[in-house]
Design brief:
Helices cover 44% and strands 17% of the residues. It is of the alpha+beta class. The chain has one domain. Strands 1-2-3 form a 3-stranded antiparallel sheet, with no helix packed on it. β1 and β2 form a beta hairpin. The longest helix is centred in the N-terminal third of the chain and has 27 residues, at 12-38.
Length: 103
Amino acid sequence: MNKRKKGPNYTSEFSEGHLFITILAYQFVRIVRKRLCEKGIKGSWSTLHMELASHCRITATFRRADGRTMNIRKATLPDPGAKKIYQALGCPMQPGGMKKMPV
């Protein structure tokens, strides 16, 4: 006989949390697509996702003269399509700025 233990994924709190975040994400997508549509940018969520997928943050790691490591994080420049989306939404082109983190 298979007796599976019920883990944390089976709790009602987990289900309620999952449902809440799913509804929140759905509303977010609707708001973003509506604002983009008002600015003349039409497309499915997957099209918009593909357009924005090339924009990322990178980390460069350097060895300092004192032997310690320096990590520098910075966003790449957005492609023209992503730039158009950011401008329509009023978002910064390079979110997060540049961060220098000595390790």
